[in-house]
Task: structure prediction
Amino acid sequence: VQLVETGGGLVQAGGSLRLSCPASGFTSENYAIGWLRQAPGKEREGVSCITGKYGSTYYAESVKGRFTVSTNNAKNTVYLQMDSLKPDDTAVYHCNLQVVGMNYWGKGTPVTVSS
Result:
């Protein structure tokens, strides 16, 4: 399984970014795929995820109403639409896939939100 995140960058507060993470190398529909982030000097935290079989979603309280997780029709790419970005959203965002008892990570894409 390979996870490669794209879409990070520098944006002003109030702006938007869309992260993408194509996921290949698995066929099971019993999976959860999503995003975690790690800011400098802080622990990694879960941001959002979506399940493969039923499309259930999860959002951290800090991003509810601002971020939207989705997949494409083939369910092999996960997106994170980030709106109304805040400086506190500055972090490296990692794609994470949990499937068949395994946990996979991408290397991350940096997001910097300036005030």
Summary: The two ends are 37 Å apart (CA to CA).
